Input
Amino acid sequence: MSPEARGDHQAARVVAAATARRAARSAALWGLVFGGYVAYAALQFSATYPTAASRDKVAAGLGDNPGLVALFGQGQRLGTVAGFTAWRVMGVLTLLGGVWGILTATRLTRGEEDAGRWELFLAGQTSRQRAAAQAIAGLAAGLVTLWTVTAAITVAAGSVSRVHFPVTGSLFLAVSVTAGATEFLAVGMLAGQLISGRRQANAIAAAVLGACFLIRVVADSASSLRWLRWASPLGWAEQLRPLTSPDALPLLPVTGLVVVLAAASTALAGRRDLGGATITTRDSAAAHARLLGGPTGLAIRLSRPAVTGWCAGLAVTGLVGGLVAKSAANAISGSTAIKKVIGRLGGHTGSATYLGIIFLVAAALVCVAAAGQIAATRDEEAEGHVDHLVARRAGRLHWLAGRVLAGVALIIAASLAAGLAGWAGEAADHTGLSFVQLLKAGVNIAPPALLVLGIGILAYGWWPRFAATAVYGLVAWSFMIELIAAIITNRWLADTSVLHHINPVPAADPDWKSAACLVSLAIVAAVAGGAGFKLRDLASA
Amino acid sequence: MDAVIRIEELTKAFGKNRALSSLSLEVARGEVFGYLGPNGAGKTTTIRLLLGMLRASSGQAQIFGVDCQRHPALAHRRVAFVPGEASLWPSLTGEETLHLLGRVHGHVDAAYRDVLIDRFDLDPAKRVRAYSKGNRQKVLLIAGLMTRADLLVLDEPTSGLDPLMEQAFRTCVAEARERGQTVFLSSHILSEVEALAGRVAILRAGHLVEIGSLAQMRHLSALSIEADFDSAPPDLSRVPGVAAVEVQGNRVRCQVSGSVDPLLRVLAAAGVRKLISREPSLEELFLAYYGQADTPREASGVA
Output
């Protein structure tokens, strides 16, 4: 080997080692979360329902609920610890793993590049293409760590006598719950090659994840749509059916996807400039100064892409939910258990129950949009953009008010988009719900997001460094609580979810009093945050 | 009351770290004031306090008699600020950025803006993300200068500019001075300050170590002496006021502070053939403050 070639290999290994170290650190932590959730589900279920009879009773109630099936996927043998655990963890962890995969991949590839750290490596003796390949190797090391930690905890929990999973079954379960992470590490990696800027790459990859989740939800909504599972990478993961009837065949498309995306990422990395993008936008543009008269107009201008994107995403969610509501309801019309539940909810149709769950997902999405606005607000300060305004005649609070206004506009627009598109979808299918009901469903999902925005401003005003983490954490926590609400008995715990304080409209009427409370709290929090923001130092550029 | 900037006992601490200690200074109307110091000396901290981006730990600062900490937006009515870190909104074009910053400032001399765009050779139709660092810095300079504000606060404004643009910048500051605008120029490019500033303050580790006109500072500082002899030069190290003696063959270089009389006597007695004396450049002055003592010292050699 020539000295140059040896230098090449060393430089490349530096990228691989640095990526692997950081990916593994995060993966070890998330492995604890993954494994912990599996252990929690298995131990909790086996302890709460010790007899076969009690388990069957629970299984009958859960397996027939169209909303739960849509969220978690189709369960099998829910009356057993294995079946219940697999069903309970798969939907949640493949989705969560997808989020982790995207954030990790973009952070360690595009994020490092944006921060200028790759320049140091590439100024040495390695090519972009090889650096990208080494980064993939580093991410793979992170994935192995995630799987190892998850598998270790799963095997340990499985060895408890009342749970009793076979070791091979536990290992395959660990493969299955990390399948989402595997797929979306690759998706995040490719997104990072396509567009410049980590946040934009995250947005692209998140849109793909959202679409995959939606396709999976639709596929599980009615038996006639089951084939759609094969159209979604999250559906492939579901088809693995760990613990109940494990099937390794769907690992084929999973592996294929990862190989294709990794190869594409490496190829694209070699063809573009460092810091550049495969998809380039035009460098010059005619001036559109209409909105640029002050901080508020600027905030609206800067948020416009986010507003468009989220409105489109929420509209698609609402539309698809509306379109499949009737078939989802028909699928369960034979179930007496569900009829009882429907009766309790005030005699609404099955479609309304189904849409109630869909709008819960929509509410969570709008909360994510609100959290994104907080992160963007923080970025404006950290990048030093605010300096240009407050050094002139704009007051700090004037600027912050503009950002809040843009956030509120985004939340309301996205909520209404979900409601209106939901109506369009269900009207096309003659489901029988009125325009007003769906409009209310849309309006109903805004207050939790407004609260997230308010709490975010509070955190931003006093502890700007932690604001983004705090709001994203709050939203993730809330959605998690909603997903496991059926097995939560502690009311206080359930109340910590911002999503827990709205009714499942259109299956129930909106709780206006509770909505008013959420909005008032949001205003109080935002005002308190504004007070902190006025007093503190602005972060240095 | 003719002080445009008045800073009194201004102190800023970040945790235990004192970034600025009891700074007091005044900048008079119409002067170009050079603010010097190495990285981390507290230059930017001073400016961010003046602009109300940081909260002072104690002391106060006024611009045109308005308290910067209590009424920042009011104090900034007649101020234009050019930061050295060229971070702008990447999705806006240069023209849009100038429009926005002009509107937020309130007043723009449109004709002068066009002159500046021409002079700095900027293509305003490009998006900020497509600009080089130097071009982003030009946008910020134009945005500051086009307001014709009574006070220009410039924080290392020429970082990333090429020599031609640096020249254009100096022309602009000279124009501003002729129009009676006041300029607060923070920089570590000493030649720039030397060419433009009438008065200079030198900052070190958060303390003001020197303030005054360049002529004063030179007068009070050491002279550089270079003397040639026909044979080996005499030993100068014991002569009062002489320091930094350097012998090179028949040539000797040294610095002398205070009276040059004792040195001249020794030189004349030894039969000096050629003598050059030179006032120190700002760079030499600056290095004199930083090169030697590690402990902070009060205005050495200055009464």
Q: What stands out?
A: The longest helix of chain B spans residues 163-178. The two ends of chain B are 27 Å apart (CA to CA).
